[in-house]
Amino acid sequence: MTAFSLLHLAPLFGGAAATLLVWLCVILAVLATTEDQPRLVLPGAFVLLVGGTSAAAGELLVPLPAQWWLGVALCALAVAGGGPAAALVLRAATRGGATGINGGILVGDEPGREVLRGGTTIGYLERIVVVAAALLGRWELLAVLIAVKGLGRFRDLDAGAATERFIIGTLVSLIWAGAAAALIALG
């Protein structure tokens, strides 16, 4: 049985199938991070795509009592899945880019100078803020988030490769979290 048919059966099972499917995607997203296998996040992307298409079509897939649990699962997917999704896109965009011992990228102006360290932790925090801002309807928090992130990384963005990784990673992370938050808000 495919994920698509499970989502359409969700009303019959009181939303349990959809909620379990999203939690499975959360587990895969966590494994994608811990096992350095970002492709494991692709089922989560499929769930967000199908859910977004269904929400845009005005189909309510989950009855009201189960929406809370599905919302919690989507929040977890928003936070856990954005990192592997960004890693997958960054690997495709920056083939062969060298990383330092702390996970940052190496820039050529100083031997061993590593920039953009701590991106994983910052990514989790930014996705939490995106989901919270969307659920609260406080869109100005996103502007503050992007400004603070840009100012905090300003010194590291003098290298072209660092700038590219920063922009790509941030956009993928924000889009992922925003898509999950939109499903929660529209559900």
Summarize the structure.
This protein has 187 residues and is mainly alpha-helical.
Please describe what this structure looks like.
- With 187 residues, the chain is an all-alpha fold.
- The protein has one domain (3-186).
- Helix content is 69%, strand content 2%.
- It contains seven helices and two strands.
- The protein has helices at 3-9, 16-34, 42-56, 64-93, 119-136, 140-152, 160-186, and strands at 105-106, 114-115.
- A two-stranded antiparallel ribbon has the order 1-2.
- β1 and β2 (114-115) form a beta hairpin.
- α4 (64-93) runs antiparallel to α5 and α5 runs parallel beside α7.
- The longest helix has 30 residues, at 64-93.
- The two termini are 24 Å apart.
Binned strand content: under 5%
How much helicity do the residues have? 55-70%
Oligomer state equals: single chain
Span from first to last CA?
24 Å
Tell me the overall shape.
Answer: globular
Biggest sheet: strands side by side, in what order? 1-2
Structural class: mainly alpha
The count of β-strands is 2
Cα Rg: 18 Å
> What's the order of the H and E elements?
HHHHEEHHH
List the keywords.
globular, mainly alpha, disordered N terminus, 187 residues
